């Protein structure tokens, strides 16, 4: 039962964070939510993202950190998740490594 609840919560959070980023970003870079990692007791959520082009990663992460509280408020307003978790944004290094392996193998 808990696994289903966690999976559903991840899906809802991924959808809401993606919607918020789409609505608030300038469009100069493509920010994609690749994974949601729930922390202990779901108080913290790590949002793994990829950014294209890669040169814009730093500015995209600054944007996400600056808008973190607004994203949490967006989740609060558009879901029934309680308590609203603290969002932590990170670049998805696993996805970057996978892309490098694809380049090497081709």
TrEMBL record:
Which organism is this protein's natural source? Candidatus Taylorbacteria bacterium RIFCSPLOWO2_01_FULL_45_15b
Against Gene3D superfamilies, the record matches this protein to: 3.30.300.20
For this entry, the protein name equals: Ribosome-binding factor A
């Amino acid at each position: 039962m808990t696994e289903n609840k966690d999976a559903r919560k991840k899906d809802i959070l991924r959808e809401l964070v993606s919607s918020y980023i789409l609505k608030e970003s300038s469009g100069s870079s493509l920010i994609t939510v690749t994974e949601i990692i729930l922390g202990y007791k779901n108080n913290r959520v790590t949002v793994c993202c990829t950014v294209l082009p890669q040169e814009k990663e730093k500015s995209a992460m600054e944007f996400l950190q600056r808008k973190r509280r607004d994203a949490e408020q967006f989740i609060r307003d558009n879901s029934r998740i309680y308590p609203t978790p603290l969002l932590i944004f990170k670049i998805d290094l696993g996805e970057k490594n996978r892309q490098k392996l694809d380049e090497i193998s081709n």
